[in-house]
Every structure is written in structure tokens, then in C-alpha cells.
Amino acid sequence: MNSVSTSFTHLYGTHHGWLLGLLRRRLNDRWEAADLAHDTFIRLLSRPLAETDHVRQRSYLATIARGLCIDHWRRRQLERAWLQTLAEGPEALQPSPEQRAIIVETLYEVDAMLARLPKKVSEAFLLAQLHGLPYKQIAVQLGVCERMVKKYMAQALLHCAILEAELDGMLVQ
């Protein structure tokens, strides 16, 4: 065993129980807590911890876990909203469980992409795509000129194209 795997094993053995307890209290679900604790340590494999101080190690783990919790809650919120919308539709148009999982994952990716965009860009995109507003009305609502709305939409659509390519596995990160 090399020193990296030895230190990771030691870190896992030292802090896993503590992290699991922290996540169980935060999530109120032992299975989700176990999943997020596992994901936290998986993140450490790509971003090794240089700290040797016990308190700083836990702080670093808690920071990673907090981010994963936020992602988890955001994903659940999106999933609930979509399932509520879906339930309001006709039963004949209900997707299969596999299609539901794919759609929820895609919604999560689009939400994450929109969160990375500047506020006015994402607002313009949502006003155009979800509400069907013409650029002129979007410009008035955002307090910008119509030309800026076109720039915002181009930026958002570029990010959508990149996201689609990533989802299709065409881009290597």
C-alpha cells in the first residue's frame, strides 16, 4: 500500500463514524446520510486532504458534506416540483421509472447550469423558454435593451449546447 492509500484509509477510519453521525442529524435519513458520507470520501480521492490536524480534517470533511447536502436538497426540490407537475397531467402520458430518472437528472443538470450563469442571463433564458416572452418584453422586465437580451440568450444557449454535449458524453473533462 502506498502512502496516499494509507493516509486515506486512516482518514476514513478516523472520521467516517463522526461524519455519518453529522449527516444523519442533518438529513434525518440514515441511508441518505450513508450515501453522502461515501460521496464525501470519494471527493477526497480527487482532492486529497493535506491537513494533519484532526479539527481541520473534520472541518474540511464537513465543508464537502455541506455542499453535497445542498446539492441533495436542491435535487429533491426539483424532483418534487417536477413530479407534482407530472401528477397534474394525464396518466397516459406518464413516463416510465427509467425515463423519470433521466428527466430528473437532466433537470438537475440544467438547474446547475443556470446557477452558474449570471443572474440576468438565467432570468432571460427562463422568461423566454418557460414563459414564452418575446425578447422585447424580456428587455423591459430586466431593464436592458433588446440587444442585451439577445446576447444573454446566446450565452445561455451556448451553455445549453455544452451541457447537452456533456450529457451525451461527447466532451471529456
From TrEMBL:
Domain of life, source organism: Bacteria
UniProt keyword Transcription present: yes
GO biological process: DNA-templated transcription initiation
UniProt keyword list: Sigma factor, Transcription, Transcription regulation
Alphabetical list of Pfam families matching this protein: Sigma70_r2, Sigma70_r4_2
SUPFAM superfamilies the UniProt entry points to: Sigma2 domain of RNA polymerase sigma factors, Sigma3 and sigma4 domains of RNA polymerase sigma factors
Domain RNA polymerase sigma-70 region, first and last residues per copy: 11-77
InterPro entries noted in UniProt: RNA_pol_sigma-70-like, RNA_pol_sigma-70_dom, RNA_pol_sigma70_r2, RNA_pol_sigma70_r4_t2, RNA_pol_sigma_r2, RNA_pol_sigma_r3/r4-like, WH-like_DNA-bd_sf
RNA polymerase sigma factor 70 region 4 type domain sequence ranges: 109-160
An example Gene Ontology molecular-function term: sigma factor activity
Record has Transcription as a keyword: yes
Family according to the record: Belongs to the sigma-70 factor family. ECF subfamily.
Protein name (Swiss-Prot/TrEMBL): RNA polymerase sigma factor
Biological source species: Pseudomonas fildesensis
